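Please, structure for the following, as tokens.
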Amino acid sequence: MIDPLKHRFAALRSRAEFHSLRYVQRSGEYLSVRRNVSEPPHFSQDRGAMLCVRLNGVEAYAATNDLSAAGLQAALEQAERQAERIARHALFDVRGLPPASGRSQYRSPNQDAPFPSLAECYELLAEESAKVPRDER
């Protein structure tokens, strides 16, 4: 996903002196036991990008989950419009400051370690749920 995103980002058209993109991908598995009854598992996956622009001394941001070229361009234009709208309220002009240049990649630790099975997870949750005192109301 990163290489196509780099190509789409390079093709964006902007009036800003500087623009950047932050890509985030997150997945999750949520399990619960309520009153000693297992709830259905919930799985989620989120992907998106945050675009930052520096336009006329003002920085503004816009986020999107549409990672197509058109979606990224729309978010970039939204950030530019936001920079124009908030310019009169800016506390200081950032033109003299260097733009952020940091690059980073983070991956949660132990991602390659095998995760316990659903049965094992529910067993642990059931044990903990059984320890909760009953509310007789």
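The CA atoms of residues 57 and 95 lie 5 Å apart. Helices lie at 2-10, 69-86, 118-130.
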